[in-house]
Structure formats: structure tokens, C-alpha cells
Design goal:
Elements (H helix, E strand, L loop, with lengths): L1 E4 L4 E4 L6 H7 L4 E7 H6 L1 H8 L5 E5 L8 H13 L6 E7 L1 H13 L5 E6 L2 H7 L4 E6 L2 E8 L4 E4 L9 H18 L1 H8 L10 H18 L14 H12 L7 H18 L5 H14 L10 H9 L11 E6 L2 E6 L3 H16 L2
Parallel strand pairs: 2-9, 3-4, 3-5, 5-6, 6-9
Antiparallel strand pairs: 1-2, 7-8, 10-11
The protein binds nicotinamide-adenine-dinucleotide (NAD).
């Protein structure tokens, strides 16, 4: 049970949501809205209900999944808010994973020029990553998170008890962001993680959440609008996002963290080829990620499409595709570039790693 303070909000970790009713009372809100999907309604809402006790609220339920992180779902949410005659002095509680947090925060921040919201992340990924840092938004066309804004919540409540009902695949997806945080900023946490050889039987998630959150907190605090240092958090995401976007269009979609795991292998390879990362570090990282994540079939015929998706990435400056490279385990360099040929070579490296040459 602890708290982490950022400039204008607090992250409460495992404090049983105890102070949530106080927040609601102190804010003199005229209405409380809870956003859920069908899974968080079934598994997480009963826990929240116990805490909220006598507090009345309006429930808005949307369909789960990245393919619903769209403007159409936002219209459904805004229509509900209009129908309920929601005013500016309402409070939005986002009870769910990164999709609910990103989209609920986006809807709240744009409704009547912005109403307050609180993030209650219920997946590992949203607990260590998506719920803090103020990035909100939705996917548009084939491009992930292409419409959105920066806006901080009033508070974040991270409760590891929600993870008890989370499927293993979702836990493993969130674990990719924990790996990423260690690789860019914390070599000792990497040592701890690389000793976890059987993720399926691992159950001490609470021990990993706080150190991982602290890394993200430290980075976003220094660079809230991603002008420099915060780009470190994009390690694995340039290639990962492109692979995720492409996979979304197929009948074999990838979870966010599964795509980032692919991106981290490829971008570690690029870091090595550009002379920043040693061969032994590359091997160590690749072997561990390969051991933890299943192979995703990448088709060399899709490499051009992947490059085009990378070119559309909002992290780019001008025409060059922007990367964060590792300079060792626990250190990195932002604003890096490389040739298209090398990017394709890194995708081939991923394939060979799993399939052998
Ligand atoms: N804003 C940011 O800084 C940031 C950072 C990283 C990722 N993201 C975004 O986060 C999203 C991915 O988030 P995610 O991995 O949490 O996926 P998600 O929100 O789709 O949730 C995954 C699945 O788990 C279910 N679920 C959630 N909590 C549960 C629980 N406690 N028990 C059982 N089922 C539960 C959900 O209904 C869903 O089916 C992506 O859209 C990504 O772009 C945002």
C-alpha cells in the first residue's frame, strides 16, 4: 500500500480503493459515471460496488477489445452522456484496461470541453503503463492512437486484486511493458525479470508493479509532452505498433504487449547493428523474449506495408522513422533513425530467431 505523486495527481497502489469515496465527496460532483466493458462489468464492478456503497452512478457499458477503440464507440459514450443530461461537474470513472482508460479519458476530456476522470486500471498493462502519463485517444483508420490528446486524470487507483481474473495472455501482454521499463532504465529489475522462467505459474505481480510504475512516473514527470526523454518509453513501439496495426486487419490479431515483444526484439537488433548494444546483450534480450512469447508469423511480403505504417507514426519528425535504441541493458538513446533495409533485416532476424535459418 503506497502512493506515488505526480505534478497534479496521485497514483494509489493497493490501498483498497479506500480513498475513492473521499475524492468523489470532496469534488462535489453532480453525477458519477462508470465506464465498463462486458468483462470488467462481470469481474471488476462487484469490487468497485463494495467501495462505492451508497454512491449512485450511471453505468455505461461498451464492447471490449481494441477493435472498439473507435470514434463510433466514442459516439455511443457521448450519446449516453447527453441522454443522461450530464453537466460539466460530472466525474468519469474508467474501470478497465488500456482501451477503456484511453477512450474513456478521451471522451471525458472532450465532452463539454472536459469533465474530470479517474483511472481504475484492471489489466497489468494498464496498471504499469497506460493509466499514467496522460496520453488519451482512439484508433483511426489503420493507425493506432492517431486521434487524441494529453490530459491527466484526477487520480489513478492501481489494485493488483483485479488481476486475479485476468487471462494469462493479457497478463503476458502487460508483462512486455514491464520488460520494456527494465530495458530502458533499470538493469537490476531486468535481472529480476530474467530469473522468471515460468511466467504462467508466476503470481507475485504486486512486487513488479510498483518498481515498473516508478520508472514510467520518473520519465513522464520530466517530459510530460514527449518532447525528449519520454520517447525512451517508445522502445519496441515503432515496429511493435506497425505489427499490431497490421495484425488488427487480419484474423490473427495480436495483443498490444505481444506486438511490443516483437518490436523489442527487432529494435534490440537495430540497436546492435547501429553499434550501440553488444552482441551478448542482444542475445540475452532476444532469448528471454523468445522464451516468454510465442512466434507470430511475419510474412516478408508484408514488410513494405509495415514500413508504410511506421512512416505514418506520429513519433516521426519529417520523413524519417523515429526509434529509441538501447545502449546497454537499462540505458537508451532517443531520436534515432536507420535505413529501411536495416528495418527489414531486423524483421528477418525475428523470424530466424524463432524458426532457425
Ligand atoms: N495511454 C498510454 O500511455 C498507453 C500505453 C500503453 C498502451 N495503451 C493502450 O492500451 C490498450 C491495451 O490495453 P490492455 O492491454 O489493458 O487491453 P484491453 O483494455 O483491451 O483489456 C484486455 C482485455 O481484458 C479484459 N479485462 C480487463 N480487466 C479485466 C479483469 N480484471 N479481469 C478479466 N478481464 C479483464 C478486457 O475486457 C479486455 O477484453 C491499447 O489500446 C494501447 O494502445 C495506452
Amino acid at each position: 500500500m503506497s502512493t506515488l505523486s505526480l505534478q497534479d495527481y496521485t497514483i494509489h497502489i493497493d490501498d483498497d480503493l479506500q480513498s475513492l469515496p473521499d475524492y468523489i465527496q470532496q469534488g462535489y460532483y453532480t453525477k458519477v459515471i462508470v465506464l465498463v466493458d462486458e468483462n470488467t462489468k462481470a469481474h471488476c464492478l462487484p469490487i468497485l460496488d463494495k467501495i462505492l456503497e451508497n454512491q449512485t452512478y450511471t453505468l455505461i457499458e461498451i464492447l471490449s477489445g481494441e477493435n472498439h477503440k473507435t470514434i463510433e464507440t466514442c459516439c455511443q459514450i457521448w450519446t449516453n452522456l447527453m441522454h443522461e443530461q450530464t453537466g460539466r461537474k460530472a466525474l468519469f470513472l474508467n474501470l478497465g484496461g488500456g482501451v477503456i482508460g484511453d477512450m474513456g479519458g478521451f471522451c471525458a476530456s472532450t465532452f463539454k470541453r472536459g469533465i474530470d476522470f479517474i483511472q481504475i486500471p484492471t489489466t497489468l498493462l494498464s496498471q504499469v503503463d497506460a493509466s499514467i502519463g496522460g496520453k488519451l485517444g482512439i484508433d483511426f483508420g489503420a493507425i493506432k492512437n492517431s486521434i487524441g490528446l494529453f490530459k491527466n486524470p484526477k487520480a489513478v487507483f492501481v489494485e493488483s486484486q483485479f488481476l486475479k481474473t485476468l487471462p494469462f495472455g493479457e497478463l503476458r501482454s502487460g508483462y512486455a511493458e514491464i520488460i520494456k521499463h527494465s530495458l530502458i532504465a533499470d538493469a537490476s529489475q531486468w535481472q529480476q525479470l530474467s530469473a522468471i522462467s515460468d511466467l504462467k505459474s508466476y503470481d507475485n505481480w504486486a512486487a513488479l508493479i510498483e518498481p515498473s510504475l516508478k520508472i514510467k512516473q520518473t520519465v513522464v514527470q520530466q517530459d510530460p509532452f514527449e518532447k525528449g526523454l519520454r520517447k525512451a518509453l517508445n522502445f519496441g513501439h515503432t515496429i511493435g505498433h506497425a505489427v499490431e496495426s497490421l495484425a488488427l486487419e487480419t484474423d490473427q490479431p495480436l495483443l498490444h504487449g505481444e506486438a511490443i515483444a516483437i518490436g523489442m526484439i527487432c529494435e534490440s537488433y537495430l540497436s546492435h547493428k547501429k553499434g550501440h548494444l553488444s552482441a551478448s546483450n542482444l542475445n540475452e534480450i532476444s532469448q528471454y523474449i523468445q522464451h516468454t512469447y510465442d512466434y507470430y508469423p511475419l510474412d516478408s511480403n508484408d514488410f513494405d506495408d509495415l514500413l508504410n505504417l511506421m512512416r505514418n507514426d506520429k513519433k516521426n519528425k519529417g520523413a524519417a522513422i523515429n526509434f529509441t535504441f538501447l545502449t546497454g541493458i537499462g540505458t537508451c538513446l532517443v531520436d534515432q533513425t536507420c535505413s529501411d533495409e536495416l528495418i527489414c533485416e531486423s524483421l528477418e532476424y525475428y523470424k530466424k530467431l524463432y524458426l532457425g535459418s
